[in-house]
Amino acid sequence: MQKKKKTSVLNLTLNQNRRYIFISDIHGDLKLLKKALKKINYGGDDVLFLLGDLIEKGDENLKMLDYLMALKEKKELYILAGNCDEVLRFITPPLKKEELLYYCLTKGHTIINEMAKKIKLKIDDNIDVLNLSNILEANFKKYYDFIDSFYDLVILNDKYVLVHGGIDDIDNIPEDNFSLLKYDSFYLKAKPSNYIRIVGHFPTINYSTTVPRYTPIFDFNKNVIAIDGGNKVKLAGQLNVVFLENDMFSYTYVDNYPKITAKSDLIIENNNPVHIDSYLERVTFRGERLGDYYVVYNQNNVKCYAYYKDVIVKDNFFFCYDASNYFMDLKKGEEYSLVQKANPFSIVKKKGIVGFLDTAKINDDEL
């Protein structure tokens, strides 16, 4: 159950000769946001659009909001709400106490915990949810007010529509905002539009069915650009930065993983690359394990591997967030990221593409 909020829409006309920058789903990772802005030499006449989910799942939620409040005083910054940014309104009443405790004590990485810690308030089984809500709002009102100022939809130059989750029909904007913020798998469901819709919320790797990749999706047949790189949500996630300059789109990304340079060529033939996401495709598990991996099969009976921390196994229930059979090929001198060292192969990433690499071939001396 959510408290309804009236949809906030901004119609914006800006000089098209400026550089527009789009980032989404930072999830409380302030260090990575700063790293991204430094990489792209953010400044000057740039216009920055943040497309929601600025907080939650990371550990710098309050610092993130402080940074953005200060940045907004100096720069042209437009912020849109994501479903995670609404946590202060949706998690506190009317949510049940059991759900609040699960959110704060089991999931853990939430602005609510940060606020409680700052005022030395303990969240446990005895917490009064309504009292907690009142105390937090009284002590941290500036953050509530700042988040409430976020837009839900921005129409830019009557050509681009910016929204966190997605929208079916720009001529029929919902009166309350939540359906715009949490619209799972929007890219698959979206119908073509005259507007180019730029969205976050759903990591782009979820749409991969062959080679698993976190890079932005640019589909100008549907007029959808999906930019969520899965940072703090997916094991190999990254923060994508999309640019619009001189009517042309481009992108770069940053992540938190150590970098290694390949010392020799490694040629792999991936004849039938497959990526499975249980959100979008049924997965078959037959009880097989290989080191740190569960062996699973897609609907065409192709064998894939799912890292054990990306799997939920309970009684007769099996769910894997990501599984793949894609092994990384490398050329001497190429840089790649070591995402997770594991047995018998590790998870690595190159140019936003994720794959496996024989752990014995990883150059530990370069870490």
Task: Describe the structure using short key phrases.
367 residues; globular; six-stranded mixed beta sheet; alpha+beta; five-stranded mixed beta sheet
Describe the model.
This protein has helices at 30-39, 61-74, 87-90, 97-107, 111-118, 129-139, 141-148, 178-181, 186-189, and strands spanning 9-12, 20-23, 47-50, 77-79, 153-156, 160-163, 196-199, 217-219, 224-226, 239-245, 248-254, 259-261, 275-276, 284-290, 293-297, 303-307, 311-314, 317-320, 323-324, 335-340, 345-350, 353-358. With 367 residues, it is of the alpha+beta class. Strands 1-5-6-7-9-8 form a six-stranded mixed sheet, with no helix packed on it. The chain has a five-stranded mixed sheet with strand order 4-3-2-10-11. Strands 12-20-21-22 form a four-stranded antiparallel sheet, with no helix packed on it. A hairpin with a 2-residue loop joins β10 (239-245) and β11 (248-254). The longest helix is centred in the N-terminal third of the chain and has 14 residues, at 61-74. The protein is globular, with a radius of gyration of 21 Å. The protein starts with 8 loop residues before the first strand and ends in a 9-residue tail after the last strand. 38% of the residues are buried. The model has no long low-confidence stretch (mean pLDDT 93).
Task: Write a short abstract of this structure.
The protein is α+β, with helices and mostly antiparallel strands and 367 residues long.
